[in-house]
Structure formats: structure tokens, C-alpha cells
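RETRY 2/3 - previous attempt timed out on the joint model. Re-submitting the same 1361-residue input unchanged.
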Amino acid sequence: MMKLALQRVWRPLRVREPFLVGLALSAGLLAIGSVAGWAGELAEAEPLTFERQIRPILRAYCWDCHGATAEPKGGLDLRLVRWAIRGGESGPALVPGDPDQSLLLRRIRDGEMPPGNHKVTAGEQQILEQWIRAGAPTARPEPEELPPGIGIAPEDRDFWSFRPIRRPPVPLPPMHGDRIRTPIDAFLLADMPEGLSFAPDADKQVLVRRVYLDLLGLPPTYEQVEEFLRDSSPDAYERLVDRLLASPHYGERWGRHWLDVAGYADSEGGAADAPRPWAYRYRDYVIRSLNEDKPFDQFVAEQLAGDELAGAKVGEWTDRQIELLSATGFLRMAPDATASDDSPENRYQALADTLRIVGSSLLGVTLHCAQCHDHRYDPIPQSDYYGLAAVFAPALDPQAWRRPSERLVSLYTEADRREAQRIEDEAQAVLQEKQQKLDQFLTEALEKELAKYDEPLRGMLREAVTTPADKRSDEQKQLLASHPNLNITPGVLYQYNQAAADELKKYDAKVAEIRAKKPAEMFVRALVESPGHLPVTRRLHRGDYRQPQEEIAPGFLQVLCPDAADAVIPLDDPQLPTSGRRLELARRICRLDNPLTARVIVNRVWMHHFGRGLVATPDDFGRLGSPPTHPALLDWLAHWFGTEAEWSLKRLHRLILLSTVYRQASQHPDALRLDPDNRYYSRKPIWRLEAEWIRDRMLFVSGTLAPQMYGPPAEVAEDETGKVIVPANERRRTIYLQVRRSRPVAFLQTFDAPGMEVNCPKREYSTSPMQALALLNDQFVLEQARRLALRVEREIPADGNDNEFLYRRAVRAWELALARRPDQREKKILSDFLKEQQQLYDNGGAPLPDQISAETQILTNVCQVLLSLPEFLYVD
Amino acid sequence: MIRSAANRLLTRRQLLAEGAFGVGGIALAWLLSREEARAVPPAVVNLQVHRDLKARPPQFAPRANAVISLFQHGGPSHVDLLDPKPELSKRDGTEYPGEITYSFINRASKRLFGSPWKFAPRGECGTQVSELLPHLSQVVDDICVIRSMHTGANGHEVSIRYFHGGIPGVLGRPTLGAWVVYALGAETDELPAYVVLSDPGGHPVDGASNWSCGFLPAMFQGTVVRAKEPRIFNLDPPAHLRGEVQGRNLALLRDLYDHYLEQHPGEAELEARIASFELAAAMQVRAREALDIQQETEATHRLYGLDNPETREYGTRCLIARRLVERGVRFVQIFHSGQPWDNHHDIRNSLPAICRRTDQPVAALVKDLKQRGLLDTTLVHWGGEIGRLPVVENHGDPAKCGRDHNGQGFSVWLAGGGIRGGITYGETDEFGHRAVVDVVTPNDFQATVLHLLGIDHQRLVFPVNGQPQAITAGRPARILSPILT
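RETRY 2/3 succeeded.
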């Protein structure tokens, strides 16, 4: 039985040709013996060496001045122990065996070094002291010379996240029997302390709601829950998961998660925050790609280099090319204030923010920390940062910048153009007709005016008027100046002949009508290179664009490339119309021997299913991030994802959702002592719905959610009090609302929707009285409560013979809102409330809104409370 | 519920008993409060993160426990208001002898522009204040004018962000108010802890970033109380729900939460959720009460200038600020829309206009706090992000001239909450262009405000990517001890 389930989850190994590289995935079957030392923490027994413990400290605090630069301050270079002993202008910095005589430690202790407020901690000082006392040992003989810069040491590569992904063997913890449904469960159970196990499976009723909200961001209907409860076949849950993964709403929820890290917005940011009318094509691309389960490596490659994959335009853009161009919207999501202010600062900022998004979304590294200097904690030299900037330079070049409006790719086809020309010809014909009429009217008006004068003046005036202005004699000019009424222009014709002016206006209307038939010009917000543009990229001293330094060639992060040659990205690919740099970068990023990509995405998916990642800092897998709580599981998942699962996100979801860890109940009283923080995943904690899905769920249960997918975003607006709202007639899912950085929708912001300063690698969840006020008084909530009440009334008409219809309606509202029937206690609470309410309203003790009966208002009150219940705002 | 001055300062015992920062921290803090923060040993920080607004004791004995910040956007002209320059007047019309950094080159000149307004010693202390501020002149014995502010940058945004977030020009960091409520929590559970009183004309430059929580959790951002009704969004139920109806709805909600909690024991989040409904319900009553200035006497209305159309609006907000602080709000900031102090043009009329709008209400706030015994524990800040140049900004007609931006030297003032009144601190050069004596940066200002609240700016940190972040962001910052009592 268990074996059967496992087979179903693990599709047979079938190595798909990776999207970009013909690389045979051979790494697959290596197992690693030990996962000790993951956290990179100082283990008690471990002997201190320069390379392992001291280097990171000096790097963080000292190397900025004493190592990273070509001319170290005070002549002191602390990159090698030998050099530290030799010292600088102030004499030797290090005396092995004698901490108190070592200037290095003394100045640190005095607080003199490093300057500034970021001081070496007491713990770190202690490590330094111990190491010096032990004779300042190194792990191996030091090199004779070092190239300039901080370089990357073997110890740097040995950090957990930079090590290659190997597949650890699946443990077989005893005594858990059928609790092990997948390898995930096996890893988690093996890690649990004795006496701890998973919580029992959640009720089917709880589970079905959980999986709907988790995969679709929409609840099941009451009927869908009932149907699932009736299905007693052993694979009922499995089939439910498959059904939901196939739903188009899946992309609307999980696409939103990706849009968070991509920093999706419909406006440019900066002071003006101009709208981005075509950003939505990227949003739609993301939703479609997830719905069709595009392999993640392909998904990423398209976003990084869609334009390069699309190739040249031959004839018209094909649908596939348009899709690929839309994908590059990923690299156009960062704020770009050059839309309104094309300053060098804004150009460089847009580039920096784009790199930040690439780093935090795909690689889980804080790339931006290496913009101004070598990364203080992770092995990312500043030159690596500019190597990546060089990869993007042919398309994102601050020296030859194109503002957002200049980057749009038109989708106008030749046929569109011809049709537009044909229509314009039609319009021109009408305009010509109008011109004839105009000339005629002007002549008539002039004649009428001239008729007011007698000869010979009339003749002189006529001659003066009909002579071209530049040929007129002085007398003629004089003459006309004293008869201004003869200066009849089209603009003043109406003063002479209103009927003629009106007739001409009709021509204008007709022209406008004809022109309106032209095919609309659509655009893609894409990142494309300027043909043949291969600019030189320079390192910027302190990240300041006014201080360019040496040239930097395009490259990938060295720490991810054990073979130095792998870090080089060619300047130009002669096979392509583009430079090929980003395509090459995509190849480096999208493969399993890049240790970060698969770990990072697997961790993200896990985080959204469980509320926290196996690595708690999804955008930082470096030294300052959190180490994985379950390193072996993370690696097993990452490896499985990149091999058997063929980078399929849906298969990853499926594996997770079919696991016991996901199916367990939220309550597990026995585990509270052994696992109070749920570090071991001994229950499935409740989580609050994100802002978008609170709004969607309200629309859904009130029966008014509009089903249209995709397309231009619904504009947000301010109400009469200045609150940014969604216009009441806009009922599409929240993902289709305009994301205006400077105008966040108040309701969504209140529930922690991200503001998109740049992007949002991880959301915050707050509990505030402002949220409660919104649930109590916000017009949107009140309206959905009312609509839910009216929906129920339509289903259950009032019946004069039925005293219980109000109660039946309340129960039905409960079913619609929470997809279950109230239990006995809840029924009692409801029925008591209704009795009280009837008394209240019968006695006229409470006012009613216009046109609303007491019955409707009572039901609306119930509905509003339903929309604030734990089961509505949270997922169990 | 309205607090008196007496119970507002925590005793040392309370500190030790309730110290969230640990005894070691407090012992150290006591040391520091005597020895000045310059001697702080490195990195004694508490990286424990919290996400609630529970009242927390400060790190050491505070002098103030609430702040009212009257932010004056645009750059008030210090040489016409608070920083008299006889030499400038004497050499009016002659050329400025040194280098000047302008913002608007096209209208720039080096012609010195002596203040058209007269200064005189005011109060018992004799601090010189311009005739443009007759009301402030009456409370000058309670304020300390800092005449040596320096941001080093002329731009509005660069300097505004420096004042709020601690780094020049960087947007989106937590503001001073957010840090304060993160550190100290709320004293009332019926009102927001950090309130922004916005201008009827709209938000200032940078909009909501002026009260952003930045990387702190969202609950620490400022709550905007609007200049007109509805002053708080969603505060008012529609007429048909008001009062008993909503009360009964909440009772139903409570019953159903209780029932759910019985089946889900120990879910702290759900406890907090139902509590938030109760706070919201309390706020509907209390916030309205706090914002209801009709409860004030006619004399108070007159004090703040509510009887005068010119001062009524700003006066109302100053009065509301006092009512909020009185009810336990921790940090109140009043903003202008646009930049009324940005007197590039026609300074002879535009500067007196904004002074007329604000002088009386501002002085009234100081007087009123003082007479209620609240000034001792409430720190009042008045100031803009920059000042103005001592030279003429040309607009053709000499009568319509103004002054360009000046981030090199300008004045702000502080009062109450541990500030020595009746003094000035720092100096600009003889023309008022550059701060030259006891230069004060926004980081010094932040460190000092936090110090008065019993917080060491270097130890008020929040981990971002595992790295402790502080408002002063590791930049040099000193506590202005000479201006403290």
C-alpha cells in the first residue's frame, strides 16, 4: 500500500533534456555520507585555523582597507597570516602565541579598529584571541602571492549553499509505519527527537479547504466539499490534488507568489510613478506559464533571455516570440524612474534594482551588497557584481539608456499597418472634402463682408486680401489692419456663419469615427538589446557612477563556478543576432550543478506551503541568512526537482501535498512540549490568508467574483475621502488589479500586501486594529456581506408558513461562507443571535438602511460576522 | 485614562523589574546615561524581534516619553526667523565673499540679502527671534534653538529622508517615529501609537514614506489621521450599524471565536485577532473622543487661534496633537502639504504668510503643554529639512526676490522633555550660510531624541538579513548633551 503510493508520487526517472544545455545530468545518483557542519558554526572541538574561522572575521571588519584595495591602508595587508605578521607602518600586527602583543587584537579591543560603529563582537574577539594564542595556525601552507582583491578561498566554496547539490539517501526511520507517505516524511521523521511524530491527519473537511485555498487562493464551495467527503475511494485526495493543479486558478495564486519576488508593478516608481500600461503581459505570461507547468528552468531562461531565444523578427512576431518577449518583462519590473526623470542616478538605480531582483529571486544571494565593495560576508567580490552588470549591459546600459517608452516592442503587423493606411486614406478623403467646403465658406463669408463696402474701396480690399501676406504692399497691409473684420480664418468662421462652422464640425466627427477603426497598436514591455551594442562595463568605485575604474568582462559568480573558466561569459555569440550574454547566463543559472537555483525555488515553494522555508531567509542563502533546518531534505528535494521531476513545479507541489507533513492536523497537543515552535513540523500550523485572497474569497462567497482572466489591469481610484479603493464594479481577482506603487489599495495594504519598493522576497503578516476596522466598516466588506445575504435570500425565499426561514438562511450563509455546516454549538449561538436580533429590530431599536428589510439586515449582520471568522481569514 | 505628568516616567525599579532588554543592558544603560553615549562599547544589541505594541520600558531612565514633531517642509528661512545676522544686514547688496552651493543656478546671485525683518531679544533668556514670530517669542524661555543644523545637501528629498530615515536621500527606511514605537510600544490600547496628522492639501513630498515602517513590521508605521473627516479611515460605522447593532455583531464574533479557540487551544494569533477587534471597537469611541476638539474650552480654542480663519486649520491639528499625547499616543507628527516654507519667490509676502498660519498654534502648543504639566515629558520638535541662502534669488523684479535652498546651515528648535529652555546651540557663519560651530546633523538629532526617550540609538536595532540595522545606520551620531537639562 505504502509502496504503491510512493510509486505514484515519484514518477519514474526519465532524464529530460534540460531546456538549454545538452548537459547530461550525471550528478543524480551520488549520495553524500554526512551532512554535518551545515550551519558553518564553530564546533567545539574543531581546531581554529586562519582559513576557516579567522578569514570571515577579517573579511567582515578589516579587509575593506587592509586587503581588498590595491594599496592597503598603513601598508597592512591582512589577507595572509604571513603578511599580518610582517605588518605595516605601525609594525607587526600579529605575534603568534601572544594575543596581548598582537596589535591586530589590541586595536580591536580598544575599539579603535575598525573605525565606525560596526565593531567586532566579543565572541569574535575571543575566537581571534584563542587562535593567536594557539600560534595563529593555517590549514595549509599559504600561497607565495595573491592576485589583487579578496579572492575566493576553498573554505568559501565549502559553505553549505555553495556546495554542489548531492542527493542524500532517504532515511528509513523505524516505528512510523504508514506515516511515511513520501521521502519528505522520512526525512522529517528521522530528524524528530524521540517521542515525537506527526499529528494525526486533518479531517477531510479541513484538508479539502486547506488544499483549495493553498493551490487556488479560492475556497471550495460547500457542494465541492460535500462531494469530496462522499468520495471514499483511497485515492480521493490524490485525485483532488491533481484536479486542483489542473485548474487555471492555480496560476492566479502561485503566479502571485512569483510576481512578489519579481517585483511586479503597473507603475514606474520614482516621484511621478507613471503608469506602465503594458506590464500586464508579463503578469499574464507568469500565470499562463505556471498553468501549463512550464519547467522551471525554461521559465527562468525565458525571463532572463526571452528576447535572445526569440531570435530576429522575420515578417511578423509569432505568438511564441511575443510570449518570449513578454517573459523578459521580468527584467523590466524594477522601478524605473527614468520614465519621468532621465538622470544618471535613476538609470543606475534601475540597473541596480534589476540585479537585486535577479539575485534575490533566482540565486538567493544578496548581490546588492557587492555593488559598492566586496561582499563583507559572502564570497562575492565587487568585480562579480559588475561582471553580472556587464551581462545585462547590451540591454541595460546606463551610458546609452533607453527610457521605458523607448523600450516598448510594437506588435503592429504589416497587415495592421496596411489596414491603418487604408483607413487613413479614407479619412483623408473626408478631410479633403472638408477643405473644399471650408474654402467655399471662407470665400462666401469674405464676399459678404466685402459687399458692405463700395467701390473702389471694395476692389482694393479684395486685392489686398487675396494677395499672399508676404507680397502685400505697405498700403495693403495698412488697409487690412484698419479692416480687421476681413481677416476671416477657419477659427473665427463661426462668428460669420454659425451654420457653416457646424457643418464643418460634422466632418471632424466623421474623420474621428473613421480613424477609430484603425487596429489598436499593442506593445510588449520587453528587454531587448540594441543591435550591435556591446558597451564596456567598468567597476564603479564605491558604486559611484562618477568613479569608473577598470574594465570588467561579463561573468557569472565565481563562487558558483569551481572551474574558473565557467565564470567567463563570452562577449558576443556570433551565432545570434543578440550578444548571447543573458542566454549564457541563463544556462549557468538553470542547471543543477549551479548549487543555488534549485535549492532556492524548492525552498520558496516549501515556504508558501508551510508558512516558513526550510531556509528561513528565502532571499539570502549566504552567511547572514539562516542555515537550513533540514539540510538533507532540502538537498533531496532540490535534486529530485532538477532530475526526476524535470523542474516541474506541479510535481513538486504534488509531492509535498501528498506528504503526511502537509496532511496533518493543526492541533497536536502531545507535541507542544517536544516541539513548541514546530521546528520539526509536528503539526501543520494555521496561516492567515494574504490580502489578495481575503478580497478574492469575499467576492467568491458573495457570488460576485468575475471569472475573466488576463488582460489590462483594473485601475484603482480614490474615493471621496481620499482612500485608494477598487471601483465597486470591478470584481476580477485581485491579481488583475493595477499595482500602483504610490497608490496602494487601502484594503490590501491594511492586510500587508507588499508595497514593491523593489520586490518582496518574503511577506510580513500583521494583526492590527486597522484590519479590524476594515472588517467592521469598510465599504467593500459591507457590500460583500450584503451581497452574500441577498444571494441566500434568492436561494431561500421567505415563506409565510415557515418561522424558521431566517435560521435556514443563516445556516445557508454559513455554508456558503465557510463551506461547512455549523456544528451544534454554533447553531445554538446563531439561533440565539437571530432571536435577539428580531427583538432588536421588531422594537425599532435599530435603524435600517434605505430599502432594506429587517430580515435582510439581520442576515447581513450574520454574513459580516462570517467574513471575519478565523475560518474565513485563516486556513487550518 | 488621561495621564498626568507624574505617572509618566518609569521608576528605576520598574525598569529593572520589567526590563525587556535584560539586566546587563540596563546596568550598562545607567552607566551610559551618566557618561554619554560616545563611550558605548560596540555591539551590545538586542536582536530579539517583537511584533506587538505592548508598552516596553526604555533602556535607561528617560526624560520624555512622547514626541510631537512639527515638520516644516520647504526650508524655513533661518536668517529671517531664528538666526539673526547683523553682518548680513550690514553688507546687504554687496557680494558674498565665499563659495555658495545653489539649487537654481538660473536665478542665482551672490548678492547678500539682509533680512527685511527685525530681530530682538525675547523672554528672560534674551534669545533673538524675528518679528515674524511674535507668538514663539513669548515661549522662547522654554525652547532651545539649534542654529547649526547641517544636512550637507540642498535638495528637499535628500534632506527629508535624512531626517526621517537616517541616511541622506535613501527612501523607504523606518522613520524615527516607527523606531520609537518599535522600542517603546504604545501606552494606550485605545489609540494608535504613532499618529500622523496630515494636511488638508494632501501629503508632503515623498508621501507615505514620511511615516513608513521600512523594514520594521507593518504595525509600526504611522497611522494617518486625515485633516478632514473621516479623520481615520473606516473608523465610522455606517449609521445603521452604529452603537448597539455593531456591539451585538461583535458579541456574536466573540462567541464564535471562543468556540473556535476551544477547538484550537493555544493559537496566540487568534487571541490577538479577537483582541484587535476589541481595540478597533474601543478606537471607534476613543479616537473620536480624542479628535473631538469641541470638548475644549473656548479659551483653549482662542489660544490655538481656532477663532481666526488663518490659524484655524494648523491650530486644530496642534490641539489634536496635544489631545493625543495626553491620551497616551507616543509619537505625533504634523506635516504640511507641499512646501510652504520653500520661499524662492516673493519671500517678503510668502514667508510672513506661512508664519501667520503657524506661529500662534505652535506657540500655543508649547504653552498648553506647559500649563498642563505635560511639557516636562513631551518633546516638541519644530523644524524643516533645510534652510535658505543669505543671498538673493532673482526673479526680475527685485521686490519679488526670494532665497534658494541651503542645507549647509539652518535652524530648528526643541522644547520640553529634557531640553534646556531659553538657550541657543551652535552657530552659522557671519552670513548664515554654513554651520560652523557645534555642527548638528540629522543623525545627531535622532540620537538625541532617542536618548531623551531612554533609548541608545546604537542599541535600538532590527535585523535585516541578519545584520543589525539602526536608524543612524552606523553613521557618526552624537548626543547633544549641552542642550539637555
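Confidence is low (pLDDT under 50) at residues 3-45 of chain B. Closing ticket.
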